[in-house]
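=== RUN LOG ===
request id: a7f3
mode: sequence -> structure
chains: 1
length: 155
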Amino acid sequence: MTRDNPTDEELVELVKGKTLSVYWYMLRHTEPLTAREIQRGAELSSPSLSMHHLERLRQFGLVAKDVHGQYTVIRDVRVGILTQFMGRGRLMVPRFLFYATFYTSLTAALGILLWLAMDWYSTILLTLLVSVCVVLWYEALKVWREQPFPESERD
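=== RESULT ===
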């Protein structure tokens, strides 16, 4: 396993824990950030710890440091729990959210249409669709709670 140019599979093993939290924070903030800003945002204990994780990310080719000491993401790789999210910047949401929204809308529309001709086929169809919606919303919320950033960022 090379550290200079690891593959996406190798990054799964290398980017985890606090390093993953730092990377997640940087993915959500697209502007260049200093080590102190990342330390505060990722709720790390010191700027030197922030520098340690940033240097690891830089070695893996995920972030770059400019002449002003600011770091930016240069390679967007979804590793670990990040594979379950879509979007860019502040608009990163669980993949299941799109499915849950679609099936909830479909269930509501069909529920209104089938209300007029309520027979046992309609009841089974609506029960199945409601079950699918419950499972998708559960999965979306489960993934949302597993985000690698600190509790203060979740609000």
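=== NOTES ===
Confidence is low (pLDDT under 50) at residues 151-155.
Residues 92-154 form one domain.
=== END ===
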